[in-house]
Amino acid sequence: MSKKPNAMPHVVDFIGMRCKLVTYTRSAAAALVALGLAGCAWTGGNDSLSYTADRGVENQPYPANYRPELLALLRTYLNDPTGVREAGISEPAQKEVGGRRRYVVCVRFNARGTGGRYAGAKERAGMYIDGRLDRIIEDAGELCAGATYAAFPEMEKLTR
To answer: Domain extents for the chain?
Structure first.
């Protein structure tokens, strides 16, 4: 007669592992909740979205590569960058944005919307900090008032 091994130690180990897993899961969940609440409480100083560090310098350098930087961003900004019509661009000009002097480039274009139809001419402003493109401002009315536009054929030749 052969003895069957007792299956009970395996069950006990399984139960012990399960208890540890439940304990670790509760601890991990509590830590994640604490981190989430800490992230919500931290203001981080400036709440606006910026892609470059803003040193707050009043004397901003001229954005030498403003056209290629703007084209690169517009390629991803537009739903369909192909077939843009009536594209125009202004020279960089210093304007007051958010209480600080910044170089602003105004762009006017007629691009296709999500349905593939032309949506009409739009005006946007590219804001530069420390000579680099920081963001596109959609409500460019006041910033681009009186801007002189030159043809912007590079934008009309954009591809995906």
So the answer is: 1-39, 66-156
